[in-house]
Amino acid sequence: MTDPSNAADLSLFDALYNCRAMRRLKPDEVPEELLIKLIDAANQAPSGSNAQRARWIVVRDAEQRAKLAALNKTAVEAYVGPSAGRPAELPHHSAEKRGRMLASVMWQAEHMAEIPALVIACFQFDEAVDAAAASRAGGSIWPGVQNLLLAARALGLGAAPTTLGLADRTAAKQVLGLPDDMEAFCLIPVGYPMGRFGPVTRLPVEETMRWDRWQ
Ligand SMILES: Cc1cc2nc3c(=O)[nH]c(=O)nc-3n(C[C@H](O)[C@H](O)[C@H](O)COP(=O)(O)O)c2cc1C
Which residues of the chain have pLDDT under 50? Predict the structure, then answer.
């Protein structure tokens, strides 16, 4: 029997079932070779037509982190604001659990600049892109993001996929120095977790799966 709290013991399935969004992260530096290992793991993901257009920026510079943290904070404040239209609870996610999730989102909004590495998943297009074209490329980015999250879990690093900080596309592109043919899709803060890893809570497979056809 493996112990999912011990990274060295993790099987792929342990990692899958214990890869929670870890938002409260220590400011301690993450060794460069581990950051490279995460991106290399992300690089192993599939992409449409094997085009391999995913590109990764690992932001460690303090000023750059502060700029991205400011963008994230503005977006989080709008997201938690009274008119955001966010559901207070969901059938599978009680108000209490959502409250805890929100508290961790708020913690990260306050502390993102102190998190040692902010990984940005980007896509390189052939030409300048509009928002609609950009949204279609997601299918070739998110498998890499999930690879990265699983690799982080296996290495005992905390991480979470986030998009709020990139909502102001123009501002994010400017901070990241992205040319017109590149878009940022996901910002993944990475660091050593303050809390403990634990299992994810998901809908039972009986609710999300049918054999052969839906109705
Ligand atoms: C497309 C996408 C966008 C997300 N954006 C954010 C975000 O902007 N900020 C954040 O704190 N978490 C973000 N998350 C993380 C989700 O809130 C998290 O994966 C979900 O609540 C499940 O959490 P758990 O794995 O800990 O159960 C995002 C996740 C996905 C897949």
Answer: 1-2
Q: Is the dihedral of CA 28, 34, 36, 41 positive or negative?
A: negative
What does the pLDDT read at residue 135?
A: 74
* CB of residue 20 inside a 6 A radius of ligand 1: yes
Q: What is the pLDDT of residue 128?
A: 83
* d(C-alpha 108, C-alpha 126), whole Å: 34
pLDDT score of 6: 52
Does 111 contact ligand 1 (Cβ within 6 A)? no
Using most ligand atoms within 8 A of CB, pick from 118, 164, 190, 197 the residue to mutate for ligand 1. 164
Residue with tokens 């699983």: 150
Homologous superfamily of 23-81+95-194 = NADH Oxidase (3.40.109.10)
User: 115: part of which helix (H) or strand (E)?
Assistant: none
Going from N- to C-terminal start, the domains of the chain cover 23-81+95-194
C-alpha 212 to ligand 1 mean position (Å)? 30
Q: Is 58 helix (H, G, I), strand (E, B) or coil?
A: strand
Ligand 1 centroid to residue 119 C-alpha, Å: 15
